[in-house]
Design a protein that fits this description.
Length: 348
């Protein structure tokens, strides 16, 4: 039997605890330690209920443990790049939640250090592992849809986040749409050459006060000329709306919302079915498990990760371009599709 990968988690908020619970159920991992700067009674009770030992206040202590092979970075975004560098220097393989940072320079530096130290770095774009979206990817790769011409991605949250969250999130494009930027690149298998955004404040004035938008439509143009349309909103009263369609020269394929049941009730007055699952923890439950299973395979077999630091950086660059387009009202061309460098905004 292969020895389990010994893991430490830095950051024990909602996503850190989710990963901890998933890791504990997987024989390929052994969760040894957690580091969290804000130790609360709730956190201590949670750790005790799961049989976890002491909690480090400083992640540096966790990184000094020679038994730990890999680290999950689940801290606030503005500290991701720092912990990637520290974990890489400590020779730990890294799973980091998205985005890598809110700065292109910080992201480039973190990726450089991980490469220099020879450690694996997987970015947590878990939607790549959603069974329905993976099936779409397989159809595209197999050529069953012909040449992809239009990708449509709908991503709408059931309710807005708090003002405190919005202020620290990096904004809609870096926090929310970044998943959709990654999904577009994942499905198409090519780079974006132009980004055009129309954003608005239609849900809550709070977003405007924070310098953000709550509703947006983003158009991406790929190297092949194919087009992707992404529509986002911070509030969909009927639930978590997550749909993708790929339209190609030989046909189309659609991934619909996940629902509690597939039952459809038809009567003389109406046709009804269950609402979409309410939030991302329910909707992408299997994807969260499958992404860390993939990370285990990469570490055990020294294989490429399913979502690399480069993938993470490309999604960040698209988010930066989307914000620039929103602010200027103009499309933004990516001067070098391979690196994703953002050029000055140019009119159509």
């Amino acid at each position: 039997m292969v020895n389990p990968i010994v893991v430490g988690i830095i950051g024990a908020g909602r996503i850190g605890r989710l990963h901890a619970d998933n890791l504990r159920l997987m024989p390929s991992f052994k969760l040894k330690s957690i580091a969290e700067a804000m130790v609360t009674e709730d956190l201590l009770a949670w750790a005790e209920s799961r049989g976890l030992g002491s909690i480090f206040v400083d992640g540096e202590e966790l990184l000094q443990d020679p038994e730990i092979n890999a680290v999950f970075i689940c801290t606030p975004t503005d500290s991701h790049a720092y912990w990637i560098e520290r974990a890489a220097r400590a020779k730990k393989h890294i799973f980091c939640e998205k985005p890598i940072s809110l700065s292109s320079e910080q992201t480039s530096q973190a990726l450089r250090v991980a490469e220099e130290e020879g450690v694996l770095l997987q970015v947590g774009f878990n939607r790549r592992m959603d069974p329905s979206f993976r099936r779409l990817k397989q159809l595209v790769e197999a050529g069953e849809l012909g040449s992809p011409q239009v990708v449509k991605i709908t991503s709408r949250d059931p309710q807005p986040p708090s003002e405190a969250y919005v202020l620290s999130s990096g904004g809609m494009f870096m926090d929310m749409t970044i998943h959709d930027f990654d999904m577009a690149r994942y499905l198409m298998g090519e780079e974006v050459v132009e980004v055009y955004t129309r954003g608005a404040n239609l849900v809550d004035p709070m977003f405007g006060r924070c310098g953000d938008v709550d509703t947006a439509v983003i158009t991406l143009t790929f190297e092949s000329g194919a087009i992707c349309v992404i529509d986002n909103c911070r509030k969909a009263v009927y639930g978590y709306d997550q749909r993708v369609e790929v339209f190609g020269s030989l046909g189309s394929a659609t991934a619909d919302n996940c629902r509690a049941t597939t039952v459809e009730v038809s009567t003389a007055s109406s046709v009804t079915r269950d609402q979409p699952l309410h939030f991302f923890l329910e909707r992408y439950n299997q994807a969260f498990t499958d992404e860390i299973a993939a990370f285990a395979r990469s570490v055990s077999l020294n294989e490429p990760v399913i979502c690399s630091g480069h993938d993470g950086q490309q999604a960040e660059r698209l988010a930066e371009a989307a914000r620039q387009s929103h602010l200027t009202g103009l499309p933004v061309k990516l001067s070098n599709a391979a690196s994703g460098e953002v050029a000055a905004a140019q009119a159509l």
